[in-house]
Amino acid sequence: MSEEEAEPEPEAADMVSDDEAADLVIEPDDVDSAADEDMTVEPDAADMGEEVEPSLTAGFVLISAGSFTMGSPGGEPVRGGDETQHGVTLTISFEMMAKEVTQGDFQALMGGRNPSYFRGCGTSCPVEQVSWHEALDYANALSTSKGVAECFDCTDPGLATVTCLLKGSYARPQDCPGYRLPTEAEWEYAARATTTTAFYSGPITNTERTPLDSNLDVIGWYGGNSTATYAGVYDCSGWFTGSTTCGTQPVGGKQANLWGLFDMSGNVWEWVWDWYGAYPGDVTDYWGTAGGSGRVLRGGGWEIYAYFCRSAARLYCPAGGRLNSLGFRLVRSI
Ligand SMILES: [Ca+2]
Question: Is residue 109 part of a domain?
Answer without folding.
Answer: yes
